[in-house]
Every structure is written in structure tokens, then in C-alpha cells.
Design a protein that fits this description.
- The complex is a heterodimer of chains A (331) and B (651).
- By secondary structure, chain A is mainly α.
- Helices cover 73% and strands 0% of the residues of chain A.
- Chain A has 14 helices and no strands.
- The longest helix of chain A has 39 residues, at 187-225.
- Chain B starts with a helix and ends in a 7-residue tail after the last helix.
- Chain B is mainly α and 651 residues long.
- Chain B folds into 2 domains: 118-230 and 436-648, no CATH class; 236-428, Helix Hairpins (Orthogonal Bundle).
- The chains are: A mainly alpha (331), B mainly alpha (651).
- At the A-B interface, helix 1, helix 2, helix 3, helix 5 and helix 6 of A face helix 9, helix 12, helix 14, helix 15 and helix 19 of B.
Chain lengths: 331, 651
Amino acid sequence: MISYIVRRIFQMGITLVLISVFSFLIVALAPGDPFASQLDPKAKPSDIERQRDQMGYDDPVVQKYIKFYSQFFSDLGAVITGNDAHEWKLRSARTKENVLPTMWNKMLITLPLVLLTTLITWTLSFPVGIGSALRRGKVPDKVATFFSYALISFPGFWLAILVIKFVNGTMGIPVVSPYTLGVELDGPRAFMDATWHVAVPAIIGSFAGVAVLSRYVKGQMLEVMDSDYIRTAKAKGLDSDSVYYRHALRNASLPFITMLAGLLPSLFGGSIVFEAIYAWPGLGRWFFEAVLSKDLFIVITSLFVGSGLTLIGILISDLLYSVADPRVKLA
Amino acid sequence: MSNPVSNRKPTSPLRDAMRLFLRNKPAVFALVMILALALAAGSGQLLVGKKPTEGQLALMEKAAITGDTLDLEVNSNAVADHTKTELKDTFLPPFSESRATPGKIYYLGTDDLGRDVLARLWNGSSISLTIGFLAVGISVFLGIALGGIAGFFGRSRVRLPLMAMLLFSATAGVLWAAELEYAALPLLIAAGACLLIQLAMALIGGRYKSAIAFGVVVLIMVGTQLYVHGIESGTPEGRTYQHATHVADQSYELVRAIRDLGAEVKLIEDSAPDAPDEATRRADQLAVEHKQAELDLLLAKHDLVIHEAQVEIVERSIPEREERIAHLESLGLDEDVKVEQGVLEGDTKRLEELKTKTPELEEALKEAETAHEKAMELTEDKVELQGSNALLERRATLRKAVVDRFRAERDNRFESLVKGKLLNGETRYGLYRVLRHFITAVILYLLLIVTCLLVAAEGQASAGESKNPLSKVFLPTISVDDLVMRFTEIMMTIPVLFLILMVLALFERDVYIVMAVIGLTSWMGTTRFVRAEILSLREQDFIQAARALGISDFRIIWRHLVPNAISPVLVSATIGVAGAVLAESTLSFLGIGAGPDQDTWGKILADGRLFLQDAAWLTWIPGIAILITVLSFNLLGEGLREAFNPKLRGR
């Protein structure tokens, strides 16, 4: 087990190095100049040149790569250990903000939205999927199948703006941005306000997830229910509840541990589309704007952290899988 | 007494699948919808939009070269024109009569500029569907090729020379990108040598399959390059593009020179306070002045290059024009001939104007050259230590000059390309652009595939190799399966949307690039399940039997593996088209997909989003169009899945 983990971490290291080189090259070679869109109109040309020198923007790519990653890891160490006295080194070329602390703050903004979306997706898809598997071919199954097709095919961004129009325009409840801007609210009102603002995008964002995941659950459940040990359990005279929930569901939910791997990076990335439509100043939007303004350091940092989290998620899900399913041996 | 079983007609699996499919009403309906959409997409190109005449073509070509604005009223017979704006007809709801031309009915209304939504949608259908199909085509091709190789040949090991070639070329690519060309070049040569060794050994050993595979790939690569080159030098917009690429290269050189200058200035700033003596400081100063003179020289050369390219464009178009006039005269089209002759005169005049400018520029170049020489000969007494601020100012001005010039050239190029597009048809042009931009990526992928093919074909026949004294060189390293699957895993680890955004930020807005990016980042799933499918198939008895009979690998693949593995690929490709259409519309909605003159459905929806309250049909109509398309492909995919695999019914 230990040797397996060590070997996996070593492999992950190699993958991360490759990804870091790859992403750095793509971004560093992109045309465009973040200094061209200066936020400070009074900056003199010579000042901008000096900033370029300080950030090493014109250094050879190799030098830039080494400098970037040494700064990144020193900042990352400070974020992990919670060292407030740390002098932040990695800074955005355009807005001059410290990259990693800003990333942390943006993540805290995105987190409620993503958590709620994930929660809705997972809590809805299992009952829907199991229900339509148990009532195969009957009305509830047909209704669920119809809705899952409709929701998979619905362009999410269109649904989002239609819902904004309905909730905001017809019902008169503001839902764009994390909270109502320019209004001072207290106690329960502020709570309700924030709830509306997070619930609407989360519900819309979870639709596609529910549609996909419930179909997976249904497929898994049907496959398991066709297998011999379920027939044996039924023949033994077990009541249907313990057949379905103790024997079938347990085995049917094994593959979903693999899906947990995708959860970690999605917590980090959020949804660029929904954040753009609902004016949610989170990570996805931050990254999107950085890409558009060619803000090199933000883009590479996001890509690297996202890939790292994906790798960690895969490792954790593999370990969990071996715990949940004794047949799987890690070697 | 006859046996009842033998009386029954033998049924083929295909006929069974067909019967099952036809019983599935939603899937049949989806298939009909898709055929209707395909018909609409095909007719959209023919019926919608403009069809310029020969003379108008000539005028447009001239405008493409000179950059004049052009206001032409072309082909009033077109059924609908998606670019035509009519300010009297803004925001008309569906089924309303036009205010500008009574009697004309807008079936799907008009938008904020008075464009016919039906025409935009119609025109967009061809783009959106092409994108979906081509993106899935790329991803399925890569998925099947890599997954098939990993599954079927996965156990053979990559031999040392090939492994070395892969490592060398990958490192060389990285070094090249990192501007270390001098280090990359020997590695590239070494990689080529490794490939040649491998190829030679394959030929000596009588394994012609790998040599043939290699030859096919080389032919494809050379063919694409020739095709691109043909378009580039054969059409006006291609030549403009060539010119612009050249300018971009030059500008890159300039930017690098400026960067070097920055490094020198920094060096002086760092060493100035503690330079050991006056002489050292002066030497530093001299170095900087030398650099500045070098830059001026580069700028002067740059001017001359741009100018010469312009002269060449005009010069080349004159004989072409004369040919066309002769052609038109032979057809007896007097009016067109007149137009052409007018253009010809204009071109000749422009050529003269350009040629009078040449000496001026040459003079400037000479001046820069002398200044450069002088800077090299600068004596010590001329040196005077300047403040570093002055140097920084100078650097900033130079940088600005280069950037401005580059932007102007790029804008110029873009405008002439947009106009040039009318000349040669969208499809050919779009294909050309994809080839141009993605040639490197495609070459890399092909290289990987061919390497695996070579290795695989070679691995099968390695038994007799041990007698060969050279066999020590061919040490087995990691297996093909490992190589392909590790690469797939790396691609799966990078968040795809991030990757797409990053790549799109590099290029101009263009749906064909979106298509290629979606295709190149979505093949990993197909690879994995094709591999799994083939791994399970190759252990089954009928494959073993075929192998025992001595049937060749390629025949086994073609006759036994492909028919058995094709159905899941077909299903996932159908569902993939739905995903690609949705992804394209999402990206266009975010404003990073379609180009300024490409009306995809996502873009029409994004345009209409601003008028959600007043003109709801502007979002509902494209939204429903996307919904129907995606739903049809999903239903068809599910229908196919059930038809091919009846066990799955009801799942």
C-alpha cells in the first residue's frame, strides 16, 4: 500500500513536470502583451519598462520558467503553512495583485456555488436513477428519461438567461452576482438574499449533472440487478428492500467513487459559463478574464493548480476504491 | 419432415440492428430531423448570400489589395441574405411584413440591425453542423488510431532507437519553443538519424509494412504542405497572408532585439555604480549604442521588406488581370472588360507610386547601415554616460514603434482577408486556415501514430533478430500500451475547458479553430474504450482461431476487430456531435468562438441576449434550433446503442 502510494506520487510528479513545461510554453509563446493594457494611465513609458524588468517579462523563456516556478512554490508554501508575514512574490502583470492569495479569495467566493451545485446533483441523481431502474418501463421511468434527454440537450447558457429573465424580471427577485449590490440588509434578510443568489445558479448548473449522473446510476443499477447474486438473494427469500439497498445499491455505487475524482478540480474551477452569466466574481471568471488580457502568471498558475488537483483527486479515488472493493488490489 | 429452424431465413446482425432501430420511434424521428438539418445546411450555402459576378470579383480583388472600402449590391436574386442590414426593419417579430420592401415577409423576424433571422440561422446551420461533424471526425480518428494501437499492439515494446527519437524530438520541440534553436537543431538531427536507422533496419529485415506506413504519413505531410503552399501563392489573399506571416516573423526578430537591448541596459544599470573604472563604463555604453544602431538597421530593413512585398503583390496581379481581360473579351462581356481595364489602370498607377517610394526606403536603409558601422567604430571620446532613464525611454519608444507597425500590418491583413474570403468560398478558406495553424499539432500526432505503427509491425517479427550483431541497439524499452496510455492520461489531467480557452486566446476568432481544438482535446475517452474493447476481443476464441490459421494482423483487424468494435464508436461519435455543437455554441456565446463574420447559432443567441425583454425571438429561435439539433443527435445515438446491443434495451 505504502509503496504503491509512493510510486503513484512519483509518477504524478513526472506528469506535473511535463504539464508545467507544456502549459508554460503555450502561454509564454502566446502573442499579446499584458503591459499594453495598463490600468494606470499616468504610468510613464520608462516606468512600464522598469516593471517589465522587475517581473522578468523579457527574460529568455527558460529563465522565466525557473523564476516562475520557484516563486510559485515559495508562495504556495506560505499559503499552506498560513504564513502571514510572507512577502508575496508572484504578481499579476496587469492588476498587480498577488496571484496566490487572490486565487484563495476567489476560491472562497466560488466555493458555496460549486458545493451547492454538487450537493444538488448528487442528492437528486441517486434517487431518480434508482427509482427509474426499479420501475423500468413504467411512467416514472419514462418521465425521468424524457427529462434527462431534454436537460442534456438544453444549452445551459440559454436556460440560465431565461431563468434570469423569469426570476429577476417576472418575480422581481434579484439573482445576478453573489448578493444584491448597493442595498444594506440585516440578519435574516441578508441570509435570504444570499440564499436566492446562490440557489438559482446552483440549481440551473446542476441540471445537466443530474441528467447525466442519474442515467449512469440507472445503467449501473440495472446491470447489477441482472446479475446472479441478486437472483440468489431474491431466491433466498430476502425482502425486496434489503435486496435492492443492501446488495444491489452497494455494488452499483462502486463506480461512482471514480467520479469523486472529478469533484476536487471542479471545486477549484467552478463554471466559467455560469459565473460569466450570473456575474459571480469567482475563479472561473477570474481565469477567463486573465486569458482574455493575456495575464501570463494567472493563467499558468490556474492551469497548474487545476492539473495538480485533478491528479490528487484521481489518487484519492483509486485509494478509496480499493478500500470499498476488497477485490481490487493495489500493486 | 423438415426442420423448422432451417426454414427460417438467416438473419444478419446488421438486419437485426436495422429492425430494432426502426422500431425505436424517437430515434427514427431524430434521424429524419438530422437529415432535414443536413439538407438545410447544404442548401444554406447555395441559396443564402451573395454570388458576385466576374467584374464584381475583380473590383473586390482590387479592394483587397488596396484596402479601399467597397459598397457593392450583388445578386439580388438570392433567396435570403444573412449579411444585409435594413435599418427600417429592425426588431420585427416573426411573420411580419417588411417596412422597407412591402410584400416581403420575415418568417423568423429581424434583429437589431434589421438582418433576416431566418437567413442568419440558415447560413449558420451549415457552419454549426460542419463544426460538429469535423470536430468529432478528428477526435474519433485519433481515438480509434491510438486506442487500436494500444489495444492490439500494446504488448510489443518500443525499441531503443525509436524511444530515443521520441525523446529527442520532444526535447527539441521544447527547446525550439524556448528560443534555444542552436540546442534544438542537433537534437532534431539526432532524432531524424534514429528514425532513419529504424527505417533502414526495418527494410533490411524485410518488414515493409512499417516502411509503407511511414511513406504514407510522409506523403500526407508533404501533400498538405504543398496544398497550403499552392493556396498561398496562387490566390491574392494567400499572398497577403504569406506577406503578413513574413512581417510577423520580422517583428518577432525586432522584439527579440529589443529584449536583448533591455538586457544590456539592465547590465549597465547593475554595473554602473561599482564599475572598476571609467573605461569599463564606456565600453558598456558603447555596447548599448551599438545595439541601438542595430535596432535602427532592423527597423529600416523591416520597412523595405514590407514595401517589397506590397510591390510584389501588385506586380503579380497585373499579368493575372491581363489574362482575365483576354478571357472576358473572348466571352464578349464588354462591361466586365471595362471594369477590369479600370482596375488594371489603377494597379499600374499604384505600382508606379510604390516604385517611386523604393529609393527613399533604400536610402534610409543605407543611412541606418552607415550609422550602424559608425557605432561599431565609435571612439572613446564620443562617449558620454547617459542616464538610464533616457535609455529606458528610448527602449519604450522602439517597442511602441514595433508594436504599432505590427498591429497596422495585422489589421490590414485581416481586412483584406475578410474581403478575400468572398473570392474563393468559405470552405476552402477555412480548411486552409486550419491547415496553416494546426499543421504542427497534426504533425506531432501523426508522428506519434506512425511511430507506434512502426514499432508494432516491427515487434511482431523481432524473433529472428537475435542473430543480428546490431540487435543490441534495439533494446526493448517501455511498451506501446504504456506510451499511449500515459500520454492519454496526461491529456486527461489538464482541465479541457482551460486548455481550449488558452489555445483560443492564441488565435484570431475563428470557428474552424474552435472545431480543431474541440476535436484535438476530446479524443481521450474514445481511445480508452476502443483499447478496452480490443483488449477483450483479442483474447476471444475466434481471434485466437484466426491467428492459429496464420491470418495476417491487418486482415484480423479489418475482418474481425473493426466490425465488432465499430458500433460503440459509432454511438459515441453520434453523441459526440451533440456535445461538439453544444460546446461550439457555448464558446461562441462567451464571445471566443465564432469570428466577426461567422454567424453560428451560439453567436446569434449571444447577439440576441441584449434584447431579451424587447425581442424574445432573437434568443428563443437560435436556442430552439440548438436544442433540436443536440436532442436529435442524442436520441439517434441512444437509438443506435440499443439497436447494436439489444441487451441494453431499457437502460
